[in-house]
Amino acid sequence: MPLPFQQVWSPEDSVAIVTGASSGIGWELTRLLVAERSHVIVVARRRERLLELAETCDQPDRVHLVVGDVTQAGTRDEAMSLADDLGNGGLDLLVNNAGVGAIGPFAEASAERMRKVMEVNFFAPVEWTRAAMPRLRCVAERGKRSVVCNIGSVLGHRAVPDKSEYCASKFALHGWNDSLRAELIHDGIGVTLVSPSTTQSEFFDALVDTDPNQKSKSIGSWPPSRVATATLDAIKRGRSEVILSLGGKALVYADRVSPPVMNGILAKRGD
Ligand SMILES: NC(=O)c1ccc[n+]([C@@H]2O[C@H](COP(=O)([O-])OP(=O)(O)OC[C@H]3O[C@@H](n4cnc5c(N)ncnc54)[C@H](OP(=O)(O)O)[C@@H]3O)[C@@H](O)[C@H]2O)c1
């Protein structure tokens, strides 16, 4: 039966999947969810980091590990079947958080770099959501709200030079996210897009095919715990979109007011 769209989401006794939980935002969000009595299926490639995460949670038995690459169907199948066991066929929350970046001019980049970034940041969230959909629907039919939360970026609202692959992937995620939200709005399934700006995580240590001398030119940053707190708040309140940080909001809203001015400011100069 369709639910009122604004019903508040509660972590208590929920089953959640968080991809990319072995560091940064996903790590912190898992800790918050577990502290509020959610069962969290944590997904990443580094097993030891996921074990460490479980140990730092106040209820380690609520953390369930799936070790693998999010771009692989086997990883997804394992997580979904674990969710079926824990949630009796239902899934309350899917957080598509795993992500990678790359820095450097498009003209000097390999075709492979674009493929890798798009696979992790766009095609993986799409396929994880496709697999989760019947399980999310099952929860909604039981009279509870379920949620898909996509971790985007302010660079999915305004693109900048030297991050073409990353911007393309986050713009794609943003567009797909908005279509999905409109399709599911009357089904009791919420779709939330969270767009952080620079966050102090391991993100810049794991850039794809990037010259180590390339540096991000972003100004100011948030700790991942702050991003995770804002994310959980957005999920609970059924927010459709949140753009985090003052700098992030300034970039996005200035671009909405005058794209040509922003194009001029961001134009790459050779000097
Ligand atoms: N950091 C920023 O400045 C920033 C700004 C805006 C948006 N974001 C977005 O926030 C999200 C989280 O990033 P973060 O800052 O927390 O970065 P992070 O600390 O580098 O975390 C990224 C997570 O994704 C996982 N991951 C990456 N590729 C994977 C793959 N192929 N399969 C499975 N897991 C994979 C990593 O785990 P393993 O390596 O163990 O697999 C790690 O747990 C990303 O979507 C990112 O685009 C970040």
Automatic annotation (TrEMBL):
InterPro entries: NAD(P)-bd_dom_sf, Sc_DH/Rdtase_CS, SDR_fam. SUPFAM superfamilies: NAD(P)-binding Rossmann-fold domains. Keywords: Oxidoreductase. The keyword Oxidoreductase applies. It holds the Pfam family adh_short. It comes from the Bacteria. The keyword Ubl conjugation does not apply. Belongs to the short-chain dehydrogenases/reductases (SDR) family. PANTHER family: DEHYDROGENASE/REDUCTASE SDR FAMILY MEMBER 7B (PTHR44196), DEHYDROGENASE_REDUCTASE SDR FAMILY MEMBER 7B (PTHR44196:SF1). This is SDR family NAD(P)-dependent oxidoreductase. It comes from Rhodopirellula halodulae.
